[in-house]
Every structure is written in C-alpha cells, then in structure tokens.
C-alpha cells in the first residue's frame, strides 16, 4: 500500500476510532490484496510507511467478497463490478482475505 | 469519408546500464537513504551486457524484428532464452549502446550542457561516424574536456556525473545557478528524453524514405517537462527534436497526458491532417531515466537481472490518405470522460465498446487490441501480474456481458485478439503505441482488417485530480479509395457520377 494511502488510513483511524473504520480493497491479485489487508491490520510488512509496526486491526474486505456483494444493490454491483468478477481469481482473493482477517482483525 | 493514414513508424531502445544505476529513482532514492545498502552493492551482478539486451526477445519485437505472434513462441522467462543471431538494427529502428547515446546527447545539446571526457568522446565519435544516421552530425560533438574539468564541473558546479562501465566519462551541467527547474538532474532527464526522441524520429524518416523537409508539424508526448522557474513546463521538446532531425519546415508542440499521451497525440495528429491543417504530422517521444530499474529490488530478490535497463522511444508519421496504408478512423474514438467513473468496467466500456457502438461493431470485430503492452517478464516478478493479459481478459469479459462472445470462449479471445507484452515499463512507451508499427504491416501486407489502439494514464499521480484517463482509436485496412481533395467523395464515385451523366446525355441525344 503506498505511503500516502497508509497515511490517510492512519489519520482517519485516529479521527474516527478503529472500531468505526472499514477498509474496502479493489486490488487485482490475491497477493497484493493480502499485502494491503495486512498493512491495515498488522502493520506495513515492508516497514516503509506510516503504518510500519502499527497494528490497527481494522475490518478489511475486498470488493469481490460475498460480505460486500450481499450488502449492496445487485444491479449497481453488476454494473460496476460484474465484469471484474469474471476476470479476477475470486476464490484466491477470498481465501487470502479470510486468512488475514482471522489472523489480524480486531473488530 | 476520407481518413488520414499511418505512413510509417520508428521504434528505438537505448541500453543505459549506468544511467539505471545512478538516475533510476529506485536506485537514486536508495543511494540517498542507504548509500551502503546490499541492494546497491548487488547492482553490477544483476546488470545485463549490451549483447544480452540485443538478444532479449521482447527488445527484438520492439524494434521490428520479431512479430508479437512469434514472440509468443519464445520460451519464458525471456531473459533466460536469448535469441541467437539477434541484430542491433530492426525494421523499425535499433538498440543503441550507451557510449554512442552519450555522443547523441552531446549532438542534441544546444547549450553546451553535456561535457564528455576527451578520450571517451573520441571513441564515441568514431562509432557515430560509422552510424548511417549520424555521420553528418558528429562535427557538433566538439573535442571534449579533460577529466579534471569534468570532475571540477561536478565538484564545484553541481553537475550530474555520466558513467560508462562504472567509470566517470562526463557530466551534464546545471543550466542556471539558482533556478530549480534548470538543475543538472532535470537537464539530464530532459536531454535523455530529447536525444532518444531524436533517435526515434531519425529512424522514422529513414525507414519511410520521407523527405524531412515535408514534415509540417511535430507532436511530442513524453512524460518530462522542460522550462525554467517562471514556466516550469513551458516546452517545447517537439521543436527541439525537429531541429536536430533537420525538419526545417516543421514546428510543433508538446502534449502531456501521462501514459495516455501517445494515443491522444495520434488522434490529434489525425485530426490535424484530416482537417487539412497539415499534410505530414509526426508524433514522437523519447524515454524516461527515472523509470530505469524501477522494479529493481524485486528483480534482485528473485535473482534476476534488472530488466528495466533500456530507455525507449518511438515516432509515428500521420499523413493524408494514400489509398495504401491503414486509415485512422477518427469517427471511432473512445474517451474516458470526467463523468465516466473509475471502475474498470466503466473504463473499459468508455474506451472499448463506446467507439465500437458508434461503428455498429462487436468486440470480436476488432482483430487485435493494443493495450498497455508492458513486458510480463518485468512486471510478473514485481507482483504486478501480466498487464496486457489482464486487459484482454477485461475486454473479453465485457464482450461476454454484452453477448458478443460466449463465456467458454474467453480464453480463446485473449489469445486471438490479444498479444504478449513486449514493451519496457517506461510509462508512455508501452501504452498502446508499441503495436502501431506491426499494425501498419498487419493491415497492409498481413491479413488483419481492424485493430484498436488504447492509451490509458494515471492522472492522479500529479495530484491535480483523482481521475484516471484514457483514449482509444480504431486503425483499419485501407479500402484503396481516396477522396478527391475538398469534395467529400472518392475518385471512383466521381468517375461513376461522370459515367452516369454521360449516359444520360447520350440517352437524351438519342431521343432527340
């Protein structure tokens, strides 16, 4: 996750409280989604950004996960995400996100 | 309607290992933060020779010696499967070694800002004297400076050093003592961009046999900015490049749109020609030093050579319809507008299907799509995946949603309508434009009828907007019919009209 986005997540969390935060990802690969999810839960694994060593434990989901899909208008979902759902490795992303959440998510 | 044509192209690469070590941002930031880092120490062991760079299959594709469909057959990873008998010179251009390129930077330098050590300069001059495109220009190189002078420029005057094979061979001086827009670093980046643009345009003129005096206008579309502190992006690379190439009847301007700029430039060049403003417009761009070795840390981690060791450049000539070369369908343009939205689906719809709908075409009616043609050998080890393949999957998936193809045919669509990526990750260089040279072949002597060039750009990087951008255009096989100037009808149609009129007249006379 780039340094600017880490900074935004950190600032917003300080302002609104970690329990009120939810991070929604759109990364195209399970690996990169996992890295971003790890950054906002267990801290920046590359130790380069403001979240290095900061364990926020935020709720984090990917846009192709059922938790998100079931929560939004199906027509809008189909219009905005339907095509990418066909292209992405949804199972791989879901597995990676579940792993990160079960290990590091505090909320 | 008569459309402008793609009349020729030039594609060049410059092998720049020492520039990569010292001026690629990944390396220069590392040097500033951790000058003794293991990564910097390992660079030499992960740097390719010029011969390896020439033998690298994607580079041969870039300069026109290995069609993308043939590249598909070269085993991967490509860096472990160099081609035998690979040539420096290709159908579209060449792969220039670094020492000659420093000479070309000197030739392209109008303000005595490049200083080369006299011994190095003499050798570079000898090599360029043997270069068919530059033998006339070597006189501009002068005789060089002593090494002591070069060292003094660096030590006392903030010049940026030029290395070759690890040795100091020259420098680029700052162009002003306090102006932050004319520092040695910026002048260095700009001169590399200018000189690689010159190389591409020289090849374009050479390969098309075009009379350089007939070029009316040049649009430069790289990602650098030239200017001074009072107008930081004032310009104008286009005219500066045209000057070195000898296009004395041309003027020009710079167009900026991140990686989407080449496709924007192609469309604007086509518009200028179609409107009759100019007859011959050249779209040109040199490459970027900052992106050299951008993914170097990942490449070292994966025990690979740093594959981002070349600066890229290209030039495209857009001219009036000649009845032979592929036409640029200025009526089939795709645009990502301010209101389009940022979801991949909205982006692909605006760039791919919106222009097709204008022409009543289906997704499968385009034989080849040229998208972000980044070389997957470079991007996959860096965790960015296979960029062109991801684009083709998105286009195919949209086709499935529209009912243009069956879901089961998605994989076959990616192969049939796509290509493997071969371009270096130089931002604007891989974006749609690398295929235009092959498109000219495939749409004339080859068996394709329609291709689409798609350019995309990440505008948010400049922090002026959060928006993404993109434009696209269809290139099509020429029907051979050419409109008579200013009529809006083809010559054949005029002939038919005359025949009809003669028949009517004859019939009238017979009656009388």
Automatic annotation (TrEMBL), chain A:
Signal peptide stretch: none
GO molecular function ontology, one term from the record: sarcosine reductase activity
GO cellular component, one term: glycine reductase complex
Record keyword Kinase present: no
Domain of life: Bacteria
Reactions performed catalytically: acetyl phosphate + [thioredoxin]-disulfide + NH4(+) + H2O = [thioredoxin]-dithiol + glycine + phosphate + H(+); acetyl phosphate + trimethylamine + [thioredoxin]-disulfide + H2O = glycine betaine + [thioredoxin]-dithiol + phosphate + H(+); acetyl phosphate + methylamine + [thioredoxin]-disulfide + H2O = sarcosine + [thioredoxin]-dithiol + phosphate + H(+)
Keyword DNA-binding: no
TM stretches of this protein: none
Keyword field: Oxidoreductase, Selenocysteine
Record's function text: In the first step of glycine, betaine and sarcosine reductases, the substrate is bound to component PB via a Schiff base intermediate. Then the PB-activated substrate is nucleophilically attacked by the selenol anion of component PA to transform it to a carboxymethylated selenoether and the respective amine. By action of component PC, acetyl phosphate is formed, leaving component PA in its oxidized state. Finally component PA becomes reduced by the thioredoxin system to start a new catalytic cycle of reductive deamination.
Annotated family: Belongs to the GrdA family.
Quaternary organization: Monomer. Component of the glycine, sarcosine and betaine reductase complexes, together with components B and C.
Name of the protein in question: Glycine reductase complex selenoprotein A
Organism: Anoxynatronum buryatiense
From TrEMBL, chain B:
Pfam families: ACP_syn_III, DUF5940
UniProt domain Beta-ketoacyl-[acyl-carrier-protein] synthase III N-terminal: residue ranges: 254-330
InterPro entries linked to this entry: ACP_syn_III_N, DUF5940, Gly/sarc/bet/_Rdtase_C_bsu, Thiolase-like
Protein name: Betaine reductase
One annotated GO molecular function: 3-oxoacyl-[acyl-carrier-protein] synthase activity
Gene Ontology process terms (BP): fatty acid biosynthetic process
Domain DUF5940: 346-512
NCBIfam families associated with the record: reduct_C_beta
Top-level taxon of origin: Bacteria
């Amino acid at each position: 996750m780039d340094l600017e986005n880490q900074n935004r997540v950190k600032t917003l969390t300080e302002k609104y409280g970690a329990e009120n935060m939810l991070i929604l990802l759109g990364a195209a690969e399970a690996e990169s989604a996992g890295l971003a999810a790890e950054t906002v839960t267990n801290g920046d694994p590359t130790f380069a950004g403001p979240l290095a060593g900061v364990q926020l434990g935020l709720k984090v989901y990917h846009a192709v996960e059922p938790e998100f899909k079931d929560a939004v208008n199906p027509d809008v979902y189909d219009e905005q995400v339907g095509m990418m759902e066909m292209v992405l490795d949804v199972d791989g992303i879901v597995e990676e996100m579940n792993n990160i959440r079960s290990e590091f998510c505090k909320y | 309607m008569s459309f402008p044509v793609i009349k020729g192209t030039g594609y060049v690469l410059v092998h720049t290992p020492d520039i990569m070590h010292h001026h690629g941002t990944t390396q220069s930031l590392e040097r500033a933060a951790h000058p003794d880092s293991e990564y910097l120490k390992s660079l030499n062991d992960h740097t390719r020779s010029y011969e390896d760079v020439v033998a690298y299959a994607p580079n041969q594709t870039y300069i026109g010696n290995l069609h993308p469909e043939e590249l598909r057959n070269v085993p991967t990873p490509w860096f472990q499967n160099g081609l035998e008998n690979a040539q420096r010179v290709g159908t579209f251009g060449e792969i220039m070694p670094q020492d000659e390129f420093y000479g070309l930077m000197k030739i392209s330098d109008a303000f005595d800002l490049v200083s080369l050590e006299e011994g190095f300069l003499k050798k570079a001059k000898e090599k360029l004297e043997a270069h068919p495109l530059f033998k006339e220009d070597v006189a501009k190189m002068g005789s060089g400076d002593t090494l002591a002078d070069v060292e003094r420029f660096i030590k006392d005057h903030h010049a940026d050093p030029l290395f070759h094979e690890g040795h100091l061979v020259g420098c680029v001086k700052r162009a002003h003592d306090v102006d932050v827009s004319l520092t040695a670093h910026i002048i260095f980046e700009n001169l590399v961009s200018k000189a690689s643009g010159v190389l591409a345009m020289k090849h374009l003129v050479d390969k098309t046999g075009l009379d350089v005096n007939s070029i009316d206008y040049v649009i430069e579309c790289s990602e650098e900015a030239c200017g001074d502190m009072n107008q930081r992006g004032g310009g104008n690379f286009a005219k500066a490049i045209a000057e070195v190439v000898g296009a004395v009847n041309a003027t020009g301007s710079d167009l900026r749109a991140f990686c989407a700029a080449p496709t924007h430039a192609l469309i604007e060049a086509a518009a200028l020609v179609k409107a009759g403003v100019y007859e011959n417009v050249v779209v040109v761009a040199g490459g970027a030093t900052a992106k050299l070795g951008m993914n170097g840390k990942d490449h070292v981690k994966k025990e690979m050579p740093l594959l981002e060791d070349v600066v890229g450049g290209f030039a495209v000539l857009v001219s009036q319809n000649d009845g032979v070369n592929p036409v640029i369908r200025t009526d089939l343009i795709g645009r990502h507008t301010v209101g389009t939205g940022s979801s991949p689906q909205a982006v692909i719809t605006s760039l791919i299907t919106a222009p097709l709908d204008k022409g009543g075409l289906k997704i499968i009616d385009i034989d080849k799509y040229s998208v972000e043609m980044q070389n997957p050998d470079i991007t996959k080890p860096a965790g960015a995946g296979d960029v062109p393949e991801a684009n083709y999957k998105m286009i195919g998936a949209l086709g499935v949603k529209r009912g243009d193809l069956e879901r089961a045919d998605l994989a076959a669509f990616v192969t049939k309508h796509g290509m493997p990526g071969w371009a270096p990750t130089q931002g604007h260089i891989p974006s749609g434009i690398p295929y235009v040279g092959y498109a000219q072949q495939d749409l004339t002597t080859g068996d394709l009828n329609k291709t689409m060039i798609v350019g995309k750009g990440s505008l948010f990087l400049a922090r002026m907007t959060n928006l993404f951008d993109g434009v696209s255009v269809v290139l099509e096989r020429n029907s051979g019919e050419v409109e008579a100037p200013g009529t809006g009808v083809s010559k054949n149609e005029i002939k038919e009209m005359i025949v009809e009129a003669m028949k009517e007249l004859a019939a009238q006379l017979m009656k009388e």
